[in-house]
Design brief:
Layout: H1 2-20, E1 24-28, H2 30-39, E2 43-46, H3 50-55, E3 62-63, E4 84-87, H4 92-103, E5 108-112, H5 115-123
Parallel strand pairs: 1-5, 2-3, 2-4, 4-5
């Protein structure tokens, strides 16, 4: 009986882990990212610090600092079933943010390859 109970608990734990990581995470280049965010109103999030955000950001982006204590809580009210577009300075923080958002239940996460640095270089 104990073996069956342990097996059921393990199965449920593994199932939950796979369910949490079922998000589709894409990393796309500036041109494609630009086309996608222009198509309609999208959930666009800059995960850099407020200071970095003030220095320049993509029009329409909401700033949610990856380093803030309540990072995930700040995504409340966003639709987890709609794509969420994120970016940071170079792609490192947004990759980590993608993982956290996936674990929080977001289904489709699109990350800007090269981050805002690539965006700014392309838009010159």
């Amino acid at each position: 009986m104990k073996k069956i109970l342990v097996a059921v608990i393990l199965f449920l734990g593994v199932s939950a882990a796979f369910a949490q990581s079922s998000a589709e995470i894409s990393v796309i280049e500036v041109k494609e990212y630009d086309q996608k965010i222009k198509k309609k109103e999208v959930q666009l999030v800059d995960v850099r610090t407020p200071e970095e955000f003030k220095e320049g950001h993509i029009k329409g982006a909401k700033n949610i600092d990856f380093f803030s204590e309540d990072f995930i809580e700040q995504f409340q009210g966003m639709d987890k079933n709609e794509p969420i577009y994120i970016y940071c300075r170079s792609g490192n923080r947004s990759a980590k943010a993608s993982k956290k958002l996936s674990e929080a239940g977001f289904k489709k996460i699109i990350d800007l390859e090269g981050g805002y640095k690539a965006w700014a270089a392309e838009k010159k």
